[in-house]
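User: Good morning. I'm curious how adenosine-5'-triphosphate would be positioned relative to this chain. Could you predict the structure with it bound?
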Amino acid sequence: MKYGILGGTFDPIHLGHLRLAEEAADAFGLDCVHLVLAALPPHKTTRELSPIPLRWRMLELACQGNPRLVPSDLELKRSGPSYTIDTLREFKNKGKPEDKLFLLLGADSAEEIQTWHRYREIFEMASLIALPRKGGARPHPISEIAGRIQILEVPALEISSTRIRHLVATGASIRYLVPDSVESAIREWGLYKVTMQPVQSDANHPCCEVGG
Ligand code: ATP
Ligand code: MG
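Assistant: Good morning! Here's the predicted structure, ligand included:
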């Protein structure tokens, strides 16, 4: 089996995430893609995230009807910092030795991979696939790892959760940026109506340690 792993805060999940999963699944013949919800990743401490149950429900709604997309709460069940290397190890342990893991990343995440916890081991554990973001910008990781990240040459979808939150806060439509079911949930729960307050990065919080 070939598994894709796509981690994110998914606040909210949007069509950019779903296309990333779908494009990679087609290009690399993946049997399925696990979308792994991050509780509070180390590199996202500058704003308050929506409550986990709401982000989880939106992820479930977005994956409904597509058997290749599997929402994963694996990182939510773990205490302490959510390191990608631990997530990959858990997937490896659960599967068969011959299973292959593909870590899917947007260009922005791929560029910072060398700041992630035990990143060299990530390369031993999984093949890394990066998708362009922001008007076709391609990742430019440091030369040590540049050759080890495969870039999927597909047109970038300029969609981000940040912009979606901004659109909702200003009363604008987010139709065609998220699945209809996710749009309805956001409206029903009144999410993102107020711009979220930045939170202080707490160096003592386990989730704020350097890693990824
Ligand atoms: P935010 O704006 O809050 O950072 P986001 O849109 O970047 O949200 P994340 O949950 O941070 O979404 O992203 C999870 C993963 O999906 C990251 O690897 C990110 O680079 C990738 N990704 C997100 N949107 C896209 C997109 N439009 N095209 C390709 N990759 C994407
Ligand atoms: Mg992001």
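The two ends are 25 Å apart (CA to CA). Helices lie at 15-28, 52-63, 84-94, 107-111, 119-125, 143-146, 161-169, 180-189.
Let me know if you'd like a different ligand tried.
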